[in-house]
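<goal> How does this chain fold?
<sample>
Here is the protein in question

***
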Amino acid sequence: MSYTVVFVEDEQIVRKEIVASVRWDLLGLKLVGTAADGKEGEEMIKALEPDIVITDIRLPAQSGLEMLAACPVNHAIILTGHTDFSYMKQAIRLGVFDYLLKPVDDEELEETLALLVKKIQEEESDVEQLRKRAGTHNELIPLPRNVGNHVIDATITYIGANYANPVGLQEAASYLELSESHLSRLFKEVTGLNFLQYLNAWRINKSVALMANPTKNIAEVALACGFPTPGYFAKIFKRFTGKTPTQFRDEGGTLEGQWGEG
C-alpha cells in the first residue's frame, strides 16, 4: 500500500531537487502533487486529502503553518531555514511529525519519512485491532470508557461534549490544564489509541447514528460530527470501517454484524 504525499515549497530549485531525489516508491509513498505557495497548497490538500504533507514554513500567500491549520492534515513534516522557536512551538501544536532545517539532507529526509510511514502503519494496526472487536448495538467502533484514570476519563468526557467542534489535543490539554505531551502519552498508554484516533472513532460512531436518518445527506453528517470536509469524513470512515459512508448507508447501515466474530 502506498501513502500519498503533497509537497509545498516556494523555492523551485529545492522543490525540483527533492521531488527528483527522494525514493518515493522505495518508501511506500506516492507524490500526488506539488505547490509553490500556501493558498495553492491549501487547495491541493483539500482536494487530494493526502496522508502526508511536506511543507516549508515561509510561503507566499500564507505560511505553511497557517496552511496546515486550515486543512485536515494528520501527518506533516516541516522543512525550513529558520530556527525560530515560536515556529517550532506552533508546529508541535499542529501535530507536525518532525521539523527539518534547510538545506535538507536527502538521507535525513528519507529517514524521517520512513519513521513517519512506520508511525502511520502502527496507527492503522491500532485501528485494525478495533475492527476485530465485536461492535455493540450502540456503536460501530467499541471504545474504552470509564477506564478508572481520572485524567483519561475527563478527556473522554471532553471529547463527548466537543466532538462536533474543531477541537484536538491542544484544546483538550488546555481545558484539562495539562501539557499536550503528557496528555498524549498518557492517553495512548491507557486507551491503546492516540487522541486523534479516539476522537475520529467517536465521530464515526456519531455519524453512523445520524446516517440512520435518510433526510440527512453525507455532507451534513460530516459537518455535524466535526469533520471539516465530506472528503475527509469519507477517508476516515473508510479507514475505520473498510467502507465509504455512502456504501455503508446503501448496505443498510446496521451496526450489528459489521465485524463478524470478534
